[in-house]
Amino acid sequence: MPSVPDLQKRIHQLQTALRGAESFAAKHPRALTATVVGLLGSFAVTAFGIAPLAPDAADLPKRVLVESLPVTDITPQLDELASHAIALSRSEQTRSSDTPDSLLKRAGAFDPAAAAFLRTDAQARRILQGRAGKLVQITADSEGQVQKIVARFPAEKPEQLGTHFTRLTVERNGQGFQARTETAPLQSQVVLGSGTIRSSLFAATDDAGIPDAIASQMADMFSGDIDFHRELRKGDRFSIVYEMLTADGELVTWDGGTGRVLAGEFTNNGKTYSSVWFKDSVTGKASYFGMDGESKRRAFLASPMAFSRITSGFAMRFHPILQTWRQHNGIDYGAPTGTPVRSVGDGVVETAGWQNGFGNLVQIRHAGGRSTVYAHLSKIDVKKGQRIEQGQRVGAVGMTGWATGPHLHFEFRVNGKQVDPRVIAKASEAVSLPGYARAQFQQTVASVKTQLAVAETITDGTSAAD
Predict the structure, then answer these.
(1) In terms of pTM, does the model score above 0.85?
(2) How far apart are the C-alpha atoms of 367 and 358, rounded to whole Å?
(3) What is the CATH number of the domain that holds 260?
(4) Residue 7 has what pLDDT?
(5) How confident is the model at residue 36 (pLDDT cuts 50, 70, 90)?
(6) What is the mean pLDDT of the chain?
(7) Cα(first)–Cα(last) distance of the chain, in Å?
(8) What is the CATH number of the domain that holds 387?
(9) Which residues form the domain of 392?
(10) Co-location of 411 and 452 in the same domain
(11) pLDDT category, 325, cuts 50, 70, 90?
């Protein structure tokens, strides 16, 4: 059994360690977590008794009993506690301006050796190379020395982008640091959400905690039914079922890492539209369908860009450069320079180059005497004669030609005559579900209807995991 001086010495060692931890926390208040792992022994003495109601306790004779109790040996508990080091961990996202030193400093770590390794090691350098937005978790000890760095970012193989991610681990060992890279599967969680339009779609999805990428998917999904730029009404409602992807429990935030919308219901101006994602088990092809089995994929998309702000509609406008009123036969989409522009339908590139006031222009010929024009581009990504698929990138928003600000000018022509592209999109043909897939489809519909009914009951401004 340890002597009292031995116990006092061990307790003093423990107090010294704890004071060191408090000092580090005071110096580095931005460190996210500080965890002390240990086992604490506990002991107590409990005394209780039941006294009769009478006679008065003051009149009873008194006796003093003395009993020796063994001293519990808490040495093992103290040893266990002292053996555990303090670990400080913080999660960050890489920034375009990051250096190894700035990234470590932001995470509360101060380790020149670790920073040097991030600069010189071929694998470790990838943490700060390429696109910003990588998920990085940095663990350091009480002295600020890095023990481990784990970075998570998109998978390298295109076919794995929606299913896997890359995990890059840097770990301290006896000789310094070592790095390793591996591919791991993304985890998927189904989330339900709903909202009411009070000012705009994105304001409603913000209130519901729904990511912007999911809101854009929802707009695309219903773009054949609703013109989200012109037809939204205050009081319109939506319910949605979508995936949230995580990498080792961390929510994926990088571009293209957002999960898919699985089903949705949108009530616009009193009329309700529904859509469900369905994959044909025979062909392996997947698309959005209405609950009646009619494909939501039209021959033409409603917009050449993901849901965005329209600066001028299909009407007369005052030409900003010629200073005259001119018929504006098309739609202008205001967007930052470099925003991707996509083809609204399958076709062949007829023109790809400079054309007077239109600046950089792409014109695509579609079936049935129809064609589309994309003008004022900052960049052209296709060539004349190239075959194009619906949704394929053809260029990027710019302000070339007669343009006072970055925007895309879009036109739809039928037999050379300019028409309202939104009317064409709504009127374009849809494809029905094959007969052999009906039974499987109805099972999917029954499942998502239950989920949508639950989503409808969720209070605005919240979402729930299924």
Answers:
(1) no
(2) 24
(3) 3.10.450.350
(4) 57
(5) very low
(6) 82
(7) 56
(8) 2.70.70.10
(9) 310-427
(10) no
(11) very low
What are the Cα distances from residue 83, in Å, to 14, 78, 138, 142, 339? Answer: 10, 9, 22, 14, 55
Whether 322 is covered by a domain: the verdict is yes
User: Residues 295, 438: one domain?
Assistant: yes
Asked if residues 400 and 377 have their Cβ atoms less than 8 Å apart, the reply is yes
128 contact partners, CB below 8 Å, separation of at least 6: 94, 98, 99, 100, 103, 118
Report d(CA 279, CA 444) in Å as an integer.
10
Considering its fold, how many domains does the chain have in total? 3
**pLDDT tens column, 69-127:** 777 777 777 677 666 667 788 999 999 999 999 999 999 899 999 999 999 999 999 99
Give the distance from CA 404 to its chain's centroid: 34
Mean pLDDT of 445-461: 86
Phi, psi of 288 (to 5 degrees): -95, 140
Mean pLDDT of 275-281: 92
Residues 277 and 358 in one domain: no
Sign of CA dihedral 325, 330, 333, 336: negative
User: Are both 277 and 370 inside the same structural domain?
Assistant: no
In a domain? residue 304: no
Q: Going by DSSP bridges, is the β-strand pair 393-396/417-419 parallel, antiparallel, or unpaired?
A: unpaired
Please, are residues 380 and 362 in contact by the beta-carbon 8 Å criterion? Answer: yes
